[in-house]
Amino acid sequence: MQLLNKAIVTEHLNMQSAIGAIEALLHQQAAHPNWIKAPERLVIETFSEDDAHSLGSHLSMPATMYDGKNEYTAVKLVTICPDNPSRNLPTTTAIITVSNNDTGEILAIMDGVYITQVRTAALSGIATKYMASADCQSVAVVGCGGMAYEQLHAVMTVRPEIKTVYLWNRSREGAETFKVKFTRDYPQWDVTITVCENINDAVRDADVINVATRATEGLFDLNHIKSNVHINAVGAYQPSMKEISNDVIANSRMVVVDDLVGSRHEAGDLIQAHDSVDCAWTWDDLSGDLQALVTGALQEKTAKSNHGVTLFKSVGAASFDAAVALYVAQQAAQKNLGSSIEW
Q1: CA 229, CA 248: separation in Å to the nearest integer?
Q2: Are 158 and 298 contained in the same domain?
Q3: Between the N and C ends of the chain, which has fewer C-beta atoms within 10 Å?
Q4: What local confidence, expressed as pLDDT, does residue 306 receive?
């Protein structure tokens, strides 16, 4: 069994590999629906909102995967602690186990924080690849936390022609830190990065907007964005949360989710839009999921067009974590990465 800490996972997992693993999973799910099993994740709220603590959550996310020869199980355990940044600790902690179902042998135990960030970002990268206009030149980053960092990485990976990045964060300091770190870590992309004081200044000219926040109401309106913008929304992972306004959702020519079942329980933006008497959008207007997008089932709807907003909403599913974690576990076995121990 290999023990893989965050440094090892980060060093040996790149964005293109994560995108490839997830696209392969989506094709496999379409061809063999019974080969991938991922029950809806268990979410338990932690603490209560008070002066001492913010409301957090613990998530348990198991999935099994059969590849035609072998079957594996990956289980991710996640704890989300909103107060951690004030303690100089990450908001999200996670660990993932990967095991062989034939023998029950645990192949690897690995840090799950970077895998969570990369797989979430990879989903946005895939959606951008298929949904955004072909001539993208700029991207806005709304919310400059850990998820947003890799999300920009993913968008740049699939659209390296982007030249301008706009950043907005509730604290300017967070956006400035993001800018310095991204410029340092990814010098291969010749982009101009601008920190914006006002969110509308950030999104106004963007061809792609990445949103990753814990907001509880829409952050920008339809009249503040381009008519053909593509939006990747990965925050608002609980029904009480919301970062995409109802008028943006209702006027999107395409709304695609990563997980059909999970989105109906967790995608706060879409749940609230559907439930609102003042919003015309309902679940019947959902265009489809990422699997249909990648396999071509939504091909007519995804023909590149300059007429209408496109929206990708991600809540995450255990199968995506499993695909990326299995890739890392197999790389670890082949290259003897991390620490090898007898269990």
Answers
A1: 11
A2: yes
A3: C
A4: 52
Q: Which is more confident, 49 or 160?
A: 160
Q: Read off the pLDDT of residues 161-208 as tens digits, 9 standing for 90 and up.
A: 999 999 999 999 999 999 999 999 988 888 999 999 999 999 999 999
CA angle 193/195/199 to nearest 5° reads: 120
- The DSSP secondary-structure symbol of 84 reads G
Q: What percent of the chain has pLDDT over 90?
A: 83
Number of domains present in the structure of the chain:
2
Whether residues 206 and 298 fall in one domain: yes
Domain of residue 125 covers 121-316
CATH of the domain at 232: 3.40.50.720
**Which stretches within 102-159 are classed as H helix?**
113-131, 146-158
Instruction: Tell the burial category of 341 from Cβ atoms under 10 Å away from its Cβ (0-12, 13-18, 19+).
Output: exposed
The stretch 121-134 carries a mean pLDDT of 96
- What's the order of all strands across the beta sheet hosting 138-142? 192-195, 164-168, 138-142, 208-211, 230-233, 309-313, 252-257, 288-289
Do both 293 and 324 map to the same domain?
Answer: no
| Tokens 């700029």 sit on residue | 138
What residue type is assigned to position 3 of the chain? L
Residue type, 235: G
Contacts of 213 (CB under 8 A, 6+ apart): 142, 143, 145, 219, 235, 236, 243
Render 234-283 in DSSP notation, one character per residue: ----STT-B-S-HHHHHTEEEEEES-HHHHHHH-HHHHHHHH-TT----G
Rounded Cα gap, residues 325 and 13, in angstroms: 9
